[in-house]
Hints:
The chain is α/β, with parallel strands linked by helices.
Amino acid sequence: MRLVEIKEGKARIFIPDPKEYEKNGKFDPSWAPVFYNPRMMFNRDISVIAVSIISPKSIIDALAASGIRGIRYYLESNSPIEEIIFNDKSKVAVDLISKNVEANGVKVAKITNRDANSLLYEVITDYVDIDPFGSPSPFILSSVNAVKNGGYIAYTATDLAPLEGSAKKSCKRKYDVNNSKLSFSKEVGLRVLLSKIVREAAVLEKAVEPIFAFYNDYYYRVIIRVTRGAKRADESIEKLGYFYECEKCGFSGSSKDPIEKCPRCGNKVKISGPVWLGKINDDSFVHKMIDYLQNFSYIKNFEAVSILLHKILQENKYPSGYYNLEFIASKYKINVPAREKIIECLGDASQTHFSSKGIKTSKSFDEILECMKTL
Length: 375
Ligand code: SAM
């Protein structure tokens, strides 16, 4: 395997030379013997900032591949890290991790060549990182098991088709959610993922509190805090419910139990659930992320991270679910006014990072419609 050296954040790591694995001039990171995807740099940048705030002493990078995440946590987070377990079931990956860990002077590394699930049932840690191919579902129970009371877990999910309701059977299998493709599917997907995490954690009598969660490019990333207690777990479950959207008038909302008829016009609704209806971001954590970001002026995505954090802070004030202006406009055969104009007209609304066509507001559907018609 020919290696090339790349730089990401403060890390310099070796990865398989992409040129060696090109097919017809194209390259997909999953074709290389060890996975490294530069498109995930944004995900890792955000994670490094989050880990700086969480400040864990022990970390498990359970699906480590090249080791880039754990290495960046060590080099950039300023956390008092005493141990990072870098794990991957692939022997080639583990050999490369050893090389990268040494090249970056990571003094606290323990490298294991295990199945992540069996490892996670044997260890206890402050922070687990689950960054799989596709769905994190196979690793939810074991990661919740591995984290200390008050500890944190970060999950990446790239299987957007089931999560957003395009692949319903797959969503039922992987997340045990009856999903539909709704006009605000980008947010539905993240809340389907959180619902699964909450229900899995409850099996172990643990409660989940989302700390930071977002959608970007082709993935979701969620960071949760886990605490022990059956009663607390019950309270997390209480925050699950259903999204509905009317096939006729476009009205949407959420309810504790599934409904069949639109509360606005009485026609049939599409349903997704159970989904997480609680907050997906903790305001004080997002404020800290914004403060801490100043220490990361060297990252390539500095501007983009700053934009995301500010958007999330704004939209976090509003209830779950966003309104897709294009969808509403198409139902009522009207033009889509500029998003900023609608926000101004409503007076109490914000844009959303989930979609450039979406707004969030506590105002009613009919008030949105009124603004859209008059503008
Ligand atoms: N975290 C890496 C990063 O930020 O670049 C990328 C991880 S890659 C998407 C997923 C990795 O998980 C692969 O290296 C694969 O070998 C490993 N993997 C898949 N299933 C596993 C399992 N059951 N146990 C341990 N490792 C596994």
